[in-house]
């Protein structure tokens, strides 16, 4: 398939491009910068210049492709309303371009907002709808297009998609530990996060693209529930720092998430798509120095 990928030079996106190319697909990647365009060309992927606000570029990329993988997000934690607006607009634009075609639209979604007091499953619908909701209510919006001939598939990623070079949440926690002289956790550290290695996540995106029916929720989860205290202690051991409880504001915007249970199951995903994670575990990655770059 010729696959249009947004976020093609990002953390999950760059690994997804590698996975798609290795398995025989053709890739057209959205590139905002010269560096991103060069990196895509070096891999053998095509390039479409543009960004999430360039709706004409998104429309062209989707119209000319056999499938779309939407992984880009502004991740503007200082202005979440802008991130939500851009995400909703991008998903709507891509879905409109695919309407009536039966072609797949795999889009990034999250597990962080599904805190239910138990591990979330693929059967749990997103509770968020409308432009003011987290991610602009994009998951439910996309699924509305399943009835309009779009094979919409939600890829729900664990809160930490880890690996060497990751600049996500665990990198932020590591940088905060360096800055504060302590690897912090919230409360007694009993809250739990799910986790997945980035290569396993990329493989699941490809499997979903190839196999998943419309309305599927994929759970990119290898470890269901890693205690946040264990994450902090692993960071502390790597940095030779103590691990202690801290106030949420000492971790910046991440403080309100790190004390929240974000556990999830992937049993349905594993069975339906024969997906078996093989990458290292989160604590193994931390111990091996995957986050030594975080400052």
Topology:
Layout (H helix, E strand, L loop, with lengths): L1 E5 L4 H12 L3 E6 L2 H10 L2 E4 L5 H9 L3 E4 L9 H19 L5 E7 L27 H7 L6 E7 L2 E3 L6 H12 L2 E3 L6 E6 H14 L4 E5 L2 E5 H12 L3 E3 L9 H4 L8 H7 L8 H6 L8
Parallel strand pairs: 1-2, 1-4, 2-3, 4-5, 5-6, 6-10, 7-9, 8-12
Antiparallel strand pairs: 9-11
Helix pairs in contact: 1-7, 3-4, 6-8
List its traits.
UDP-galactose 4-epimerase, domain 1, 20% strand, 295 residues, Rossmann fold, 38% helix, 2 domains, 11 helices, 12 strands, alpha/beta
Number of separate structural domains = 2
Can you count the helices? 11
Backbone structural class: alpha/beta
Helix proportion: 25-40%
Quaternary structure annotation: single chain
What does the radius of gyration come to?
19 Å
DSSP strand count: 12
The helix-strand sequence is: EHEHEHEHEHEEHEEHEEHEHHH
Assigned CATH class of the largest domain: Alpha Beta
Nearest-integer average pLDDT = 95
The low-confidence runs, each spanning 5 or more residues with pLDDT under 50, are none
Describe the sheet with the most strands.
7 strands, parallel
GO molecular function, one term: aldehyde dehydrogenase (NAD+) activity
Region (Disordered): 118-137
Domain NAD-dependent epimerase/dehydratase: 3-212
Pfam families: Epimerase (PF01370)
What would you note in describing this structure?
The protein is α/β, with parallel strands linked by helices and 295 residues long. The chain folds into two domains: 2-158 and 198-220, NAD(P)-binding Rossmann-like Domain (Rossmann fold); 160-195 and 223-287, UDP-galactose 4-epimerase, domain 1. The chain is 38% helix and 20% strand. It has eleven helices and twelve strands. It has helices at residues 11-22, 34-43, 55-63, 80-98, 138-144, 169-180, 198-211, 228-239, 255-258, 267-273, 282-287, and strands spanning 2-6, 26-31, 46-49, 67-70, 104-110, 151-157, 160-162, 183-185, 192-197, 216-220, 223-227, 243-245. It has a seven-stranded parallel beta sheet, with helices on both faces. Strands 7-9-11 form a three-stranded mixed beta sheet. Helix 4 links the parallel strand 4 (67-70) and strand 5 (104-110). Helix 3 (55-63) packs parallel to helix 4 and helix 6 crosses helix 8. The termini are far apart.
